[in-house]
């Protein structure tokens, strides 16, 4: 079946990867256990395409080491399946059914695999639903206990498997529904739009639904005694911003979210989701924990407060990383390089000269520092999938590309990229090819120097166009 405009399945991703010479997996006809990601070879499963997650959890912050889950994963078999796997870290699994029938067997393997053998073979192309009931302590990699007593789930590259079973790889995106039950007095915030809230027996159930496919690492749940503000973008899109009880309520930056999204839409194309806003959580209960801002889909997560630079960066990810997600973890620049350059575009919008300011100062600071240039922007290496080089070297690269091809071609490329790959996946080599087609220029030397190279780019690539005069 031809994928719709709003849903590109895993089969399309695999075909695109094959055309680029990328081998994601080699599996027996009876099933699969991973997608063979070059950096995370144990993640995901290439045997099926998830279409929807229905995640139901119950959590009492007074008992932080216990979460009860009941998750149904709806998918389509991409090959004949006698077995399949999901990614789930920790928990005791009480039961697994496939299409309502108890699985023939289920077992745990490795750090996070749940192996499932259905009662009967699943035919290629068949739709099926795996329901998993589980309980236990959420894993701290993605589940964070907050000093306020609340909790939230966020993390990159992994967080989803800390609280629900998933095909945990960004190449398999799906719509997402969350039903979360907590004691009265606590509030749950999730991705997308809120559904009805119900209360009974001292517990309240909150419902959220994201109607556009998401990569698992940008799903979220946040539980706290939130103050929730609601407004709308000029086009009517709901904006929901939640503040934890121990963070400042900053209505100035909150209002600025709308201006930022409108500005980014003018550069990247229409805002891609049905809701917007922010989840602003307090500090972790663990004093050694790292503060985290993350582009959780439709409603980014911020730690400690809202700041304009973070709002620009995480909002830009809604286009670059969330709507258009990468094919595998070698493609991190498709998210971080572009989100960081959005900060520079925002500065320019406020009057900055990027040639003589940001670009010249950063190049001068690092021109004699080989380590700054040593990381490749595409395929930077395992452990560097979100390396700082993707932010700073990547932002320089995009400005140099803009000065190489001109504003018309540069922003046309960005608009075509976000439009043609909306709600799907793509790779950095595909972006290189698009930039060349739109500009009509041979950009191989440019990308070899900036993206695939590990040294300071030659002068013709380092100072193209107006950057030559700004040296």
Helices, strands, pairings?
Blueprint: H1 10-19, E1 48-59, E2 67-77, E3 84-87, E4 92-98, E5 101-102, E6 105-109, E7 113-117, E8 127-136, E9 143-145, E10 151-153, E11 174-183, E12 187-190, E13 193-194, E14 198-200, E15 203-214, E16 221-224, E17 227-232, E18 238-243, H2 251-268, E19 276-281, E20 301-303, H3 308-316, E21 325-326, H4 333-349, H5 355-366, H6 370-373, H7 388-405, H8 407-420, E22 425-426, H9 428-439, H10 444-450, H11 459-462
Parallel strand pairs: 1-11, 18-19, 19-20, 21-22
Antiparallel strand pairs: 1-2, 2-8, 3-7, 4-5, 4-8, 6-7, 9-10, 10-16, 11-15, 12-16, 13-15, 14-15, 17-18
Helix pairs in contact: 2-3, 3-4, 4-7, 7-8, 8-9
Describe this structure in words.
By secondary structure, the chain is of the alpha+beta class. The chain has eleven helices and 22 strands. Strands 1, 2, 4, 5, 8, 11, 13, 14 and 15 form a nine-stranded mixed sheet that branches. Helix 2 runs parallel beside helix 3 and helix 3 (308-316) crosses helix 4 (333-349). The longest helix has 18 residues, at 251-268. Residues 1-29 have low confidence and may be disordered.
Percent strand: 25-35%
How many helical stretches? Answer: 11
**Could you describe the largest sheet, including whether it forms a barrel?**
9 strands, mixed
Helix content: 25-40%
Total strand segments:
22
Labels describing this entry:
471 residues, single chain, 9-stranded mixed β-sheet, 4-stranded antiparallel β-sheet, 11 helices, globular, 27% helix, alpha+beta
